[in-house]
């Protein structure tokens, strides 16, 4: 039961941070207005492959990074929480997509699939730190497998949303997409506060 609850929490958290609806809106602002269905399907496939590779790299090397730089897990929690909080504020305020579109609109569509759509828009610092934090909270191979399944489910959702982003935009409209992004921002913000408080409390105990 506890394993399922953790799995559910991880899935919802990763979904909120990844925010595929918001990412699809940003992606459409970067891509050509005349992009075809087959082109956007190819971009969705490349972007999804990118975030999957990034996930497994972080999952495998996350502990090594912490040990290499001598970073305490709780310190990462506090810093990761601050990053997520800034991200949440950006999501709630609905800013950032315009800047990205202006900076990237001179590139070919398929060149944008890996950078910046895959990294850092879909797989950014918030997702990076969250995965490392989750990994350090796990103790068994079953729990690690659960995290992998959780991310793979989100990667599949990301692929489906990005692949069908043209239809989603027509159905939801800009206002609908913004509302969903703001709701995801609230969830990410609440999670960030938990990370910050938990990290500070544990650091205080270890240094006192």
Automatic annotation (TrEMBL):
It holds the Pfam family MarC. Keywords: Cell membrane, Membrane, Transmembrane, Transmembrane helix. The chain crosses the membrane at residues 12-31, 51-69, 75-92, 112-134, 140-162, 183-203. Its main location: membrane. It is found in: Cell membrane. It comes from the Bacteria. It is a multi-pass membrane protein. GO terms for cellular component: plasma membrane. Belongs to the UPF0056 (MarC) family. This is UPF0056 membrane protein. It comes from Halarcobacter ebronensis.
């Amino acid at each position: 039961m506890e394993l399922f609850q953790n799995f559910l929490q991880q899935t919802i958290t990763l979904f909120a941070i990844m925010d595929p609806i918001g990412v699809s809106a940003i992606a459409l602002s970067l891509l050509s207005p005349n992009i075809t269905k087959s082109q956007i399907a190819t971009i969705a496939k490349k972007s999804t492959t990118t975030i999957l590779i990034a996930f497994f790299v972080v999952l495998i090397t996350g502990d090594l990074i912490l040990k290499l730089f001598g970073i305490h897990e709780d310190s990462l929690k506090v810093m990761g929480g601050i990053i997520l909080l800034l991200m949440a504020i950006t999501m709630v305020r609905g800013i950032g997509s315009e800047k990205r579109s202006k900076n990237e609109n001179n590139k070919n569509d398929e060149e944008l699939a890996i950078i910046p759509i895959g990294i850092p828009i879909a797989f950014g610092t918030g997702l990076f730190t969250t995965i490392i934090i989750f990994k350090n909270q796990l103790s068994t191979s079953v729990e690690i497998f659960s995290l992998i399944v959780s991310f793979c489910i989100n990667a599949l959702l990301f692929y489906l949303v990005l692949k069908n982003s043209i239809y989603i935009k027509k159905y939801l409209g800009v206002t609908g997409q913004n509302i969903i992004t703001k709701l995801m921002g609230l969830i990410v913000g609440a999670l960030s506060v938990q990370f910050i408080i938990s990290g500070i409390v544990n650091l205080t105990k270890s240094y006192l």
